[in-house]
Structure formats: C-alpha cells, structure tokens
C-alpha cells in the first residue's frame, strides 16, 4: 500500500475509517512520547500498527516536562552509577535519532557552604568526572570543569553570594518535548502507521476466552463510537494507565500509579537572566533541586513535586505551587524579587510514577531519603576518585556503593522518592501495559516492549516481523548526520533565507523542522499573501505545514505544542492569535460558529497559562 505523505485532518478521517475496517497487529493507546516510540518502532518492524490518542498528541505529560534531556548527574549524589550510565548513553541515542531536537547546553551547578547541600566542591568534581567518563565526553569541548566564586558571580551577578564556594559546569541537553513526540508520530505515519488524535478508548473488547481483541473507541470530535480490532493492545497512557478504560481487574496486570504534579513558571529574561541552565538545591529542606533555564528571550524555572489526585486531563498551577517556586528562586536570586505579576506563562504536568517503587526520583531525593554515614561516603568518594584515575575497577565502585550505610530506613515514600523506573506488564487477558519512565528513556522502553510484542505476535498468531536497530531509527526531521548538526541547520537556514525570509526567522524554521525544512518552504506557492494578516511568511509556512503534515486541528495545538509560542512568546501571541485562528479556519473549512469556539478555547488557555485566575484573586484580596 502506498505510504501516506500527509498527516492532516483528512489523514485523521481516513485513518478512523481504516481503524474501523481493518484488523491491526497492534493497537497503541496513548499518543505521548511512550506510545509514539512504540508506534514508530512497530511500523519500522513491518507490524500493522494503529495509535489512538484521546486529546492532541503530547497534550498530557509529554508537553509538560522540564524540557531537558537529562544526563542524570543528580543520581550521583547517591553514586547510582548504573542509572547514570544508562541515562547518559540513552541521551546520546536520542540525540542521534532526533538530532534537530535535543541540543547540548552545559549546566551550571553552584555549590554553597551549607551542610544540606547536595555536593561540596570536591564531591561535585568527583561526580562530574565520573559522569563524563560514563557519558563519553572526556577530552571534548563538553568535558566538565569547575569555576571559582568570583567567576560564578561574574556570570550570574544576581545569584545569592552568601556562602557561595564556586560551581561546576557539566553537559546537559535542552529539549522540545512535544516536538519529539510529533516527529516520532510523523515518522510512524510515513512508515505506514494508522494514527489518529482525539479518539478515546472507551472499553476493551474480549473474545470468548476473555482475551483482549481490541477496543470500543469514540471519535471525540463527532461523538461516534466504533470498534477497533487488534491482535494485541498496548496501553501507554502515562498517568492514566490504571484507569484508561473499564478493565477486568482480575485479568489485567496493570501497575498502580502514583502521579505527582510538577509546575514551571516563565518570566522575561530582563527580570531573571541566567547565562546557561542552572541547577541548585531548593534551600527548602526538602532535598529537591530546582532548574532555571534560559530560552528564546525568556527564563523558566521549576519544578515542584506533589502527589496529585485531581483531574488528569487538566492539572492546574495552584497558589501554593507558585509560592514554593518563587520562594526558592528569590532565595537564590535575591536581587530579582520575582512576584506573581512577573510570570508571563506557566505549565503544570503529571509524572507517570509507579506506586510502591522505592528508589529515588530522578529529580532529587526526598526529605526522608536517609543520610549516608560520613565513613561510608568518604570511602565511596575515595574509590570513585581512584576509578577516575584507573586505579580502581567498576566492581570496586559497586562494592563501595553496597557498603553505604544509612542513618535511618525509609518508612514512607515522599513524592520525590517514587521511582521514575518503567514497567512492562502483560495481563491474563494479554493486555500489554508499558508505564512509568521518563522522556530520556522512551526509545529504550519502546524497544523492550517491541521485543515482547514481536514474540507474542509470532507465538500466538504466527505473524513475522522484522527486528530493527531502533538506535538508528531516525525520526521525521532528523534524517541527517547527528555529528554535523550545526552545519546542517546552517544549510537549511540558508535555503530558507533564499526564499526571502529574514535570517532569524529562517533559523527558527530550520531548528524546528530539521530535514523537513525543504518541505515547509516548498509550500510558498500554495500560500496567498494576505495584506490583513499579522503573520509573516515564516509563520504562515509553519502554520500551513503544521495543519497539513502535523495533524494540527486547533489554534491551541499550534501555538502551544507544535510551537512554544504561548509559553515563550506571550507578547507575540497577542498580536498573531487572531490571524492564526483566521488562517486555520480557512484551511480547515470551519463555520463561523466553529471559528468562534476555537477563538474562545484559545483565549481560555492563554489566560490560564498566564495565571490570570491567580492574579485576579490576588488583586481582589488587595482591594478587599
């Protein structure tokens, strides 16, 4: 069958018809990063795969992360060598398969003379040296180094100077989480996957033996319900994994989830300027660490970590979340005096944590993590130092880790202590569930699931599939040499400028679309310039491509997830939002009623992102 090149609303409608008419080898429920990873690998393996997502792709957890592909240095505060090794290796794999998305951006970690600090200067250097060996960046321009107190202050004049000793600088990567999802799904589409957003799995379908054979689904745009038949079904719905549809609990082996909420706040760089991503102890006595990241003329910071039992579809930033982050920020940058009115945008997301898993969260231990004894810690630091000098073996390090003694045992897990580990389970009814994990691990999680899926298809249905090397499976937009990113992006920028697009805007397109940039700018002939539009040519090309080849169905899809405009360009959004609504209405053929509905929805999302409900509440309190 001819591969579908477009990925549009028309594609969605065709795919819904196909999902009703054709039996699949595999149905993936959930269009976040985990489901997208499974779908692209399944399609590349020659498996007839379908994927449904009840919202827009990445609308849940996968567009609400810290937007970094972490290397896991924080694991080294407990010297969890295995976790760091896996994380930095997988980070390099992700950069190879999506080279236009994760970008290296060294992280600054200030160190203070404080007994509660995660690191002192010596232990940080030991940890960073080990980290670089595991990451394979020794002797490169990304190798770690330390700077003294004076240089930290020179780089970040607004930083808290009391007790400041110096800082370490080590490699990390910035990421565009929702772009990573859509590029995986576009590649899956090109490889023959049958993919549709805004289709909800309502209930499971079983055969006479009680084996799952598909789902009853609902088209969320029309209300129509229909059956999808599939030999195998995999649940990759993140925080929803244990409540995705009515399951026979006696037959379904689904992990109990304990989602936690994390929020991020955005301010203009004129209010808080940092030269590079900065990572520091919260200073709140809770064992957490805070990221502060410069991006596109803004600075964002986060994150919180609290248990969540509310509406999974719509986690909100609450006053206590904002108060926590502002308190932590103002403690470390006391000259800034940030307040609620400085916040231009925000986002709240849920982490798909698995309850009962007792290892530390990848983003910091909790207050009850237990204290390492001075003797065992000193022995461990000495052993790791020797390992870095090739005077000790990895086995020596692992033995030193096993000898760590804690002052007290954990009695109850705080939200920060619930594991970011993943889980792959199969119930008696053959429902496969892939849950937990984090963005950095998505490819590896999917590869593990695919090994099981291929075996089940062969054993139960005698369906053969191809074994692929998913470490080499580049996603849409990423089909170029990952060791030559800068020159490649420069080339795409140049050919975009030749179409009359200014350099900065050409670079924006090249960075966003990577090897798809020629397809984006080829649409110039299809776009009529409008004198009343507030969109420049680059924006109009981006929007047209997003609608036609990224299944963008609403202005919010475009302005929040296909781009980051709502998050990092709040001032620009106010000027272009009406033109975006108007152009989408024209391309998608909306009625005036639909157009008004989309406009209202967009205004509501922008208002909530700007935290107007909190700002107005505070204003009322002041007046009262």
Helix percent reads 25-40%
What's the average pLDDT? 87
What is Rg? Answer: 25 Å
C-alpha end-to-end distance: 67 Å
Overall CATH class of the largest domain: Alpha Beta
CATH topology descriptor of the largest domain? D-Amino Acid Oxidase, Chain A, domain 2
Give the overall form. Answer: globular
Structure, explained:
It catalyses: sn-glycerol 3-phosphate + O2 = dihydroxyacetone phosphate + H2O2. Belongs to the FAD-dependent glycerol-3-phosphate dehydrogenase family. The protein is an alpha+beta fold. It folds into 3 domains: 9-62 and 178-256 and 421-472, FAD/NAD(P)-binding domain, CATH 3.50.50; 103-174 and 259-416, D-Amino Acid Oxidase, subunit A, domain 2 (D-Amino Acid Oxidase, Chain A, domain 2, 2-Layer Sandwich); 485-613, Alpha-glycerophosphate oxidase, cap domain (Helicase, Ruva Protein, domain 3), CATH 1.10.8.870. It is 38% helix and 17% strand. It is built from 19 helices and 20 strands. The strands form 4 sheets. Strands 1, 2, 9, 10, 11, 12, 19 and 20 form an 8-stranded mixed beta sheet that branches. Strand 11 (212-219) and strand 12 (225-235) form a beta hairpin. It is globular, with a radius of gyration of 25 Å. The relative contact order is 0.14.
Q: Which features would summarize this protein structure in a list?
A:
D-Amino Acid Oxidase, Chain A, domain 2, Helicase, Ruva Protein, domain 3, 19 helices, alpha+beta, 6-stranded antiparallel beta sheet, 624 residues, 8-stranded mixed beta sheet
Secondary structure elements and pairings:
Layout lengths: L8 H13 L2 E6 L3 H12 L4 E5 L14 E2 L11 H17 L5 E2 L2 E6 L8 H15 L9 E4 H7 L8 E7 L2 E2 L2 H14 L3 E4 L1 E8 L5 E8 L5 E11 L24 E9 L9 E4 L7 E7 L2 E5 L3 E2 L11 H14 L12 E7 L22 H15 L5 H9 L19 E5 L5 E5 L5 H20 L23 H13 L5 H11 L3 H5 L15 H13 L5 H8 L2 H4 L1 H19 L3 H18 L2 H12 L1
Helix pairs in contact: 2-6, 2-10, 3-4, 4-8, 8-9, 11-12, 14-17, 17-18
Catalytic activity: sn-glycerol 3-phosphate + O2 = dihydroxyacetone phosphate + H2O2
Family: Belongs to the FAD-dependent glycerol-3-phosphate dehydrogenase family.
Keywords: FAD, Flavoprotein, Glycerol metabolism, Oxidoreductase
């Amino acid at each position: 069958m001819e591969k579908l090149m477009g990925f549009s609303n028309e594609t969605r409608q065709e795919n819904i018809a196909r999902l009703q008419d054709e039996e699949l080898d595999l149905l993936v429920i959930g269009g976040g990063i985990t489901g997208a990873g499974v779908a692209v690998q399944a399609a590349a393996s020659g498996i007839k795969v379908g994927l449904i997502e009840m919202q827009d792709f990445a609308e849940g957890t996968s567009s609400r992360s810290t937007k970094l592909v972490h290397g896991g240095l924080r694991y080294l505060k407990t010297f969890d060598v295995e976790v760091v090794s896996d994380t930095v290796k997988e980070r390099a794999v992700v950069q190879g398969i999506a080279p236009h998305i994760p970008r290296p951006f060294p992280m600054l970690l200030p160190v203070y003379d404080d007994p509660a600090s995660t690191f002192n200067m010596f232990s940080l250097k030991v940890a960073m040296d080990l980290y670089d060996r595991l990451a394979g960046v020794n002797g490169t321009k990304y190798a770690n180094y330390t700077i003294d107190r004076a240089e930290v202050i020179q780089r970040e004049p607004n930083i808290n100077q009391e007790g400041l000793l110096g800082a370490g600088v080590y490699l990390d990567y910035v990421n565009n989480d929702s772009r990573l999802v859509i590029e995986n799904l576009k590649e899956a589409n090109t490889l023959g996957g049958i993919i549709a957003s805004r289709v909800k799995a309502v209930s499971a379908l079983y055969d006479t033996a009680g084996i799952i054979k598909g789902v009853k689904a609902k088209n969320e745009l029309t209300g129509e319900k229909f059956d999808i038949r599939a030999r195998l079904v995999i649940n990759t719905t993140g925080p929803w994994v244990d409540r995705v549809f009515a399951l026979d609990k006696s037959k379904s082996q689904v992990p109990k989830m304990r989602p936690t909420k994390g929020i991020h706040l955005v301010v203009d760089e004129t209010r808080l300027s940092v030269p590079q991503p900065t990572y520091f102890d919260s200073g709140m006595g809770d064992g957490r660490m805070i990221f502060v990241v410069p991006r596109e003329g803004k600075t964002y910071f986060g994150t919180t970590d609290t248990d969540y039992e509310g509406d999974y579809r719509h986690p909100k930033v609450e006053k206590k979340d904002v108060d926590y982050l502002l308190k932590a920020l103002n403690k470390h940058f006391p000259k800034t005096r940030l307040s609620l009115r400085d916040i231009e945008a925000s986002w709240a997301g849920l982490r798909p944590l698995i309850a009962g898993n007792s290892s530390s969260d990848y983003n910091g231990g909790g207050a009850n993590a237990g204290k390492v004894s001075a003797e065992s810690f000193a022995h461990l630091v000495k052993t790791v130092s020797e390992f870095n000098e090739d005077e000790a073996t990895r086995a020596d390090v692992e033995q030193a880790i096993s000898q760590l003694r804690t002052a007290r045992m954990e009695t109850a897990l705080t939200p920060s202590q619930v594991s970011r580990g993943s889980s792959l389970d199969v119930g008696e009814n053959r429902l496969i569930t892939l849950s937990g994990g984090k963005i950095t691990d998505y490819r590896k999680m999917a590869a593990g699931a695919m090994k099981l899926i291929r075996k089940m298809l062969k054993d139960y249905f005698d369906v053969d599939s191809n074994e692929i090397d998913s470490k080499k499976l580049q996603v849409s937009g990423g089909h170029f040499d990952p060791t030559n990113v800068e020159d490649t992006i420069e080339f795409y920028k140049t050919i975009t400028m030749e179409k009359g697009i200014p350099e900065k805007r050409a670079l924006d397109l090249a960075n966003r679309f990577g090897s798809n940039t020629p397809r984006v700018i080829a649409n110039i002939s299809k776009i009529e310039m409008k004198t009343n539009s507030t969109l420049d040519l680059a924006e109009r090309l981006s929007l047209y491509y997003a609608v036609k080849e990224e299944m963008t169905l609403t202005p919010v899809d475009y302005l929040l997830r296909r781009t980051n405009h709502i998050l990092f360009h709040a001032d620009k959004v106010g000027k272009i939002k009406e033109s975006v609504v108007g152009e989408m209405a024209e391309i998608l053929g909306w009625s005036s009623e639909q157009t008004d509905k989309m406009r209202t929805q967009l205004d509501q999302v922008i208002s909530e992102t700007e935290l107007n409900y909190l700002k107005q509440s505070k204003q009322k309190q002041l007046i009262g």
